[in-house]
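Work Package 3 committed the consortium to producing structural models of liganded targets before the mid-term review. Because experimental data for this complex are still outstanding, the team generated a predictive model from sequence and the ligand definition alone, so that downstream docking and mutagenesis planning could proceed in parallel. The input record is reproduced below exactly as it was submitted to the modelling pipeline, together with the SMILES string for S-adenosylmethionine.
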Amino acid sequence: MGVVSATPVTYEHPLAYLLGLEGVALLRAFTGEFDRDFVESRIAEVRRLLDDESLASAAVEVDRVETVEGYRVWSRTYDDAFNGAFELDEPVVGQIVDALPTGVAVDAACGTGRYTAMLTERGHRVIGVDNSPDMLRRARERVPTGEFLLGDLHRLPMADGEADLVVCALALTHVPVLDPVLEEFARVLRPGGHLVISDVHPERVLRGSIPSVRGPDGRPGRVSTHRHLVGDYLRAALPVGLRLRRCEEPRPPAASPSLPPATERTDRAVGPWELWPWCLADLVPEASRAAHAGVPTMIIWHFQSAGA
Ligand SMILES: C[S@@+](CC[C@H](N)C(=O)[O-])C[C@H]1O[C@@H](n2cnc3c(N)ncnc32)[C@H](O)[C@@H]1O
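The resulting structure, written out as tokens with the ligand in place, is given here.
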């Protein structure tokens, strides 16, 4: 076993990712989803990958970057680049929110104000909270009438029972343990208030859906990200008096840009590290399609505080 250093560093070896995809595809074949030809193609492809010299020496050591630093960098481009998660969570979150009365809404970990804007348009008085000053700066530009506070998900700057609605999107994957944050959401909700969570699905985190950022010195880093099991959300929510109203696990439609490209690449280059793991997946399109088929991208929860 390798020595674990004090500063967490991930050893990202392209071959490890590619063999992992082949492995997931083969597991699915082993349980009956694919036929003999598919299995033999996978095993032949594994042999080719193992013999590929260009992959053997392309590993990268990647720092783990805390969220405030990570989003300082990402805040510059967060709203510019295509993000497949937005088109998957917005219809579901919008549908849930549209059925609720307007009131005081907290956009917890509001980032650049994506949901602050949506809730404001729907007539809520919205308080956006985030621990990244850089993301908050963007949010203030986007929603000049909004109220934005620097704060942490573990200690929201609000009184008990102040909120009719808490929305928290794409942020819980960054907290190591859900329980204290769900307890905090329950604290600020009035009895009968609503909580809507959208998060990266644990199956996607497992397949490498973790934001990449370059440090000031150009070193590769990934924003600190955790994989919460579906049951982890329930085990955190139910004991603090949050009742389950709805759970959705949207997945991208076939051939959506949210999926790794399904085209055969003629070159074997590993591509730029920033685009890992998706451009790596492009090297083994059949295995990638099989490993990702039907796998949800997002998980969306609607809870209601007890006591309505
Ligand atoms: C992927 S962005 C999502 C932003 C926005 N909710 C959206 O859906 O577009 C994640 C946000 O969570 C924030 N965040 C992460 N951990 C946090 C914490 N412990 N307390 C407050 N904000 C946090 C980050 O600063 C970042 O703005």
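Reviewers should note the following from the model. The CA atoms of residues 213 and 221 lie 5 Å apart. These observations will guide the Year 2 experiments.
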